[in-house]
Amino acid sequence: MKVTDLSLNEKSSKVPKEFIALAVAVLLLSANYILPAESLRKPIAYAGSPLMKGGVAVGKAIDDSVEAFFSIPYIRSENAVLQITSAELEAENRKLQLLLEENAALRKEIDLGKREDKLLEANVLASDIGVDDSMIIDAGKKDGVEEGDIVRIGSIYIGYIGAVSELTSKVILPNNETSTLEVLLIDNPDLDKGIEQLKEEFSNRDDLANGLALGENSAIKVDNISRNDTVQAGYAVVVNDPEIQELLYIGSVSEVIDDPAAPVKRAKVRPAFVYDNINYLFVVIE
Question: Cα–Cα distance between 92 and 73 in angstroms, integer?
Answer without folding.
Answer: 29
